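Weekly modeling sync, notes
Attendees: S.R. (lead), two postdocs, one rotation student

Agenda item 3: backlog of single-chain predictions. S.R. asked that every request posted to the team notebook include the full sequence so nobody has to chase files. The rotation student volunteered to paste the first one in as an example of the format we agreed on. Action items at the bottom.

Example entry:
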Amino acid sequence: MQFFKLASLLAAAALASANTVTFKSLDSVSRTVYFTPNAGGNDLAEITVPGGASTTVNFPQGWVGNFYAVSDGQQKVPGMLGEVAFNGWNGITFFDVSAIVNPNDHNGVKQLYPAASSSPTSGCETFPCNNAYYLPDDVQTKTTTETDLICTLGGGSLQRRVEEADSPSFKRDFVLGRWTK
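Predicted structure, as returned to the notebook:
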């Protein structure tokens, strides 16, 4: 009986910490991602995403806030924002890409979408587009029941990478999230 109680507690703990965003670099530029929680929320340490690589960040239960990416060598100025509210109403994850702070940032946060279903998507491969917040009254918030999201960063394109993967001289390394010859 004690084993089942322990297993139940471990399963509950795993569910409570299952909020993630995997940041995928689409080019060769390294970036630092900065996080800003809503008032009273948990602070998260900045992370570095090497060019061509992926880095996954775990978020606390119910975390609400935003993040932005700054390319190496550039000033720490907020750009395109990835905004997320994990475990919201009815357990739903709310997310979007916002250009309200700095619509001229075309090298930081690009797209945000659920990891398993890849849909819906917020943001753009090429800015400007009609799938991001530009004005405070834009209706652009997306929702999912998933708690694992993908955020693309940089100047590349997922389509271009798929085409390269089909080429005989390239292969996809899914574990590290980068292209290798």
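Discussion: group reviewed the output briefly. Residues 18-180 form a domain with the Thaumatin fold (CATH 2.60.110.10).
Action items: rotation student to repeat for the remaining queue; S.R. to check formatting next week.
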